Amino acid sequence: MLWQTFYSLLLLSLLFRCTGDESLPEVTDSENSPMDKREREALYTAIQGFVGDSWNGSDLYPDPCGWSPIQGVSCDIYNDLWYVTDLSLGLIHTNSLACSSSLEIRPELFELKHLRSLSFFNCFISPTVVAKEEWINFASNLESLEFRSNPGLIGKLPETFGNLTKLKSLVVLENGFSGELPASICNLKSLKRMAFAANSFKGMIPNCFNKLKELLILDLSRNSFSGSLPSSVGDLVSLLKLDLSNNLLQGNIPQEIGSLKNLTLLDLRNNRFSGGLSNNIEKIQSLTELMLSGNPMSEAMKGIKWEKMENLVILDVSNMGLRGEIPTGLTNLKRLRFLGLNDNNLTGSVPSEKLEALPCLGSLYINGNNLTGELRFSNKFYEKMGGRFKASKNPNLCLPFEMVMSESHKHLRPLGVKPCT
């Protein structure tokens, strides 16, 4: 009878494991692992520097890596102890830790030796200069460093960031950093993403990109970079996206840019590039978005065999002082959805039938030119386009007589185009 009792208890135990209260946390070895005491003290002190000393982590059980973790803090186990691996400060989520208006970066932050990811979102409001010391402590592990929407971050970008050779992502977006970019950033050979958009950086772009063979995204937009675009940009052989828009860059676009065989986005809008567009641009057949508007490149369209760039989806060459006729090669771009030719000095007739035949075209802007003749688009085309077609401010462009006389399609007539006489 004893063995029967034991067998019944064993079955009940197994049954409870399978059908018991699933809301109860399953206790594993990792959840029982204690946090290194020095690690916890360093984390708490570092967080207090950002959110205020009134925070003490007293509501966390049994520690920040246990059952009630801090939002924005992730941990991993090394030698049977918890260590912080990811730290995000700022109101990224509704229950994230909010930064204090009088925050400070305390030295204890750099004692988190296993940290792989560190980010600050809308934390630094008051003027703050990031000290260059101690970042070397993160050189062995840090893979992602982000400063997003911190208007109080001023001064130069610490050159010691160049020591973080394990970095794969360096994002410095919408802050107040200024001065020149340190050439030491080109020591970050493991980088996949480098984004310095919307700061106040100025001076020339460092000519050292030949070291960044793994870079996929380079975004230097919305700054005050000047001078020419360095030829070493052609050494970014893995690059997918290059955004240099809204700067003060000038001179010719280097021919080496044609070496970027994997590039899908090239955004050079609103700079001071001049001269023509090198035929090497045809070699980037992977391009889906090409945006050049706002540069004084009157000869940019000439000599380019646009039909070779068959993957183009967006082409914006507006406000560039372009001369000549609309290139016929554009009418072979079967994937084109957006075509901006407005505010140039284009002449000649509009290849209406061929443009209308493009199966994906959804936006066409030819306004602000010197185009002539009749617009021979169908009513169906105008209906599909709606407000995404503009042809006004072409004094010698007109609508055919039958279009003007059709009262049933009066609402489809493009604004600012006169009837043919």
Automatic annotation (TrEMBL):
**Annotated GO CC locations:** plasma membrane
Pfam families named among the record's database cross-references: LRR_1 (PF00560), LRR_8 (PF13855)
Name its cellular compartments. Answer: Cell membrane
Key word Transmembrane helix present: no
Tell me which UniProt keywords the record has, alphabetically: Cell membrane, Leucine-rich repeat, Membrane, Repeat, Signal
Q: GO:BP terms for this protein?
A: response to fungus
The signal peptide, as residue positions, is 1-20
**Which InterPro entries does the protein's record reference?**
Leu-rich_rpt (IPR001611), LRR_dom_sf (IPR032675), PRK1-6/SRF4-like (IPR046959)
> Which PANTHER family does this one have?
LEUCINE-RICH REPEAT RECEPTOR-LIKE PROTEIN KINASE PXC1, PROTEIN KINASE DOMAIN-CONTAINING PROTEIN
Name-wise, this protein is: Leucine-rich repeat-containing N-terminal plant-type domain-containing protein
